[in-house]
Amino acid sequence: MDSRNSTLGFAARARKNLLYIQNSFDRGADVHVVTQLAISLLGLVVFPHERGFSDRAKCAKLSDLASQGWPTLNMTGATCQTLGDLIKFLRHSIAHGQVRFSSDSRQIGEVVIEFSNKPKGKPQLHWTGSIAAVNLQALCLRFIDFIEES
């Protein structure tokens, strides 16, 4: 396995931990799948970007990824056409604490996560995106595949 200092190594470990927490929950363990999902997403949108990975993501159209089975977010506001755009908006939302969970349920199928971007000093939101946590998990796993294929 690659070093956790590399984008590939970090992504592989994120997948391993995410699936481990999900499997542990399925066996009755007292763990939080949605929380682990948020932590995984944080690492997946920050580390690859900071290590120059986002160039390939800028070329990947969300419409093409959706036709390949990637889950999609319900989005409003600013145009988000590429995986690079989506990563940028998610990074901003996470960095500025603009993430909201629909409930504290431990059942991943019962939670919707909303991300938003509101420019400093402006009254209106610039972009919002929401996705069921179960679909966000699938999106994260697809994104890890995307990183590994690069």
Domain unit count: 1
Structural class: alpha+beta
The low-confidence runs, each spanning 5 or more residues with pLDDT under 50, are none
Distance between the termini: 16 Å
Integer-rounded radius of gyration:
15 Å
Q: Enumerate the strands of the largest sheet in spatial order, edge to edge or round the barrel.
A: 1-4-3-2
Mean pLDDT: 89
Provide the helix percentage.
Answer: 40-55%
Count every beta strand, where a strand is a DSSP E run of 2 or more residues: 4
Write up what this structure looks like.
The protein is of the alpha+beta class and 150 residues long. It has one domain (7-149). It contains six helices and four strands, in the order H-H-H-H-E-H-E-E-E-H. Helix 1 runs antiparallel to helix 2. The longest helix has 20 residues, at 7-26. It starts with 6 loop residues before the first helix and ends with a helix. The model has no long low-confidence stretch (mean pLDDT 89).
Structure keywords:
globular; 4 strands; alpha+beta; 4-stranded antiparallel sheet; 53% helix
What's a concise summary of this model?
With 150 residues, this protein is of the alpha+beta class. The chain contains 6 helices and 4 strands. The model has no long low-confidence stretch (mean pLDDT 89).
